[in-house]
Amino acid sequence: MNVNEHEERQDQSGEEAQVSPGATLDAAGVPEAAIPELVIISGMSGAGRSTAAKCLEDLGWFVVDNLPPALIPTMVELGARSQGNVARIAVVVDVRGRRFFDNLRESLADLEAKHVTRRIVFLESSDEALVRRFESVRRPHPLQGDGRIVDGIDAERELLRELRGDADLVIDTSSLNVHELRAKMDAQFAGEEEPELRATVMSFGFKYGLPVDADLVADMRFLPNPHWVPELRPFTGLNEEVSAYVFNQPGAKEFLDRYAELLRLIAAGYRREGKRYVTIAIGCTGGKHRSVATSEKLAARLAAEGVETVVVHRDMGRE
Question: Distance (Å, rounded) from C-alpha 241 to C-alpha 75?
Fold first, then answer.
């Protein structure tokens, strides 16, 4: 029985039992506890976990920092007893609680058994960026011990490897400032209703390295490079002439059609598995022409099929 159909019932003492908004009633007419939505924030030390947590706090989430993983199910249960006052919980889990970290897998299995909606946000960053950040604040890495900062980073990557693989959303903060990271978190969590699937289509240049937060990577270097066409070289894939040149090449339109079809198949699987975020990286040599034009076309296809899509041109303008 839904609360909209029956907002109040009398308890056994004859007094009216108040039903919190959003709750449901069981077969006996007793209000059931509303299970809070859960986000687990983890990732590399120095990658921006605190900033991500603060952003969710500003959006109205109940945030708990450095909670031992074994206590996460207990935290969710307490939220369920809050009469709807704690509907969204964010928990920061990191290597500061490393003696409890082995319990995380067991806690996640417990949450799944209880049908708790949970998402894992993993903050990633390059070794160079992390070393620079630790050196700037003159603090040791939590796992470096008597070694170097890079030793601590290597140990942490190994410890978090499995969790990163299970993450619903990976954010690479290597080149992001605090404001840009907050903007990314806002884009994912500020909406009132969560869409079925959110896609980030990112163009990039292979000569600058693969995006570490990419779920899928496509290589457009099988097409002729507009860089070698003098009248097109100064422009980018956002230019209509460049885009027309790229998609007039043999195989370009066929690739777009077949890759879009493949993504429909993958997206359906992601939805079944509860994965809400996907980053699709489209690369060419410099990230200026072919990858940009293809990313724009692909993003338009996804948006037309109801996938909320953001386009990012990571390396455009670097040359």
Answer: 56
Positions in the chain whose pLDDT score sits under 70: 1-33, 96-102, 191-196, 274
Alpha carbon distance 89, 242 (integer Å): 47
Helix, strand, coil % over all residues of the chain, rounded to 5: 40, 20, 40
Burial (CB count within 10 angstroms: exposed 0-12, middle 13-18, buried 19+), residue 132:
middle
Question: CB–CB of 287/204 below 8 Å?
Answer: yes
Overall pTM surpassing 0.85 (yes/no): no
CB 310 within 8 A of CB 209: no
Taking every pair of Cα atoms in the chain, the longest distance, rounded to a whole number of angstroms, is: 86
Confidence (pLDDT) at 191: 64
Residue 102 is predicted with a pLDDT of 67
Is residue 194 within 8 Å of residue 117, measured between CB atoms?
Answer: no
Q: With CA atoms as reference, report the closest residue to 101 among 164, 170, 169, 160.
A: 160
Give the Cα separation of 124 and 49 in Å (integer).
Answer: 9
DSSP state of 155: H
pLDDT value, residue 153: 93
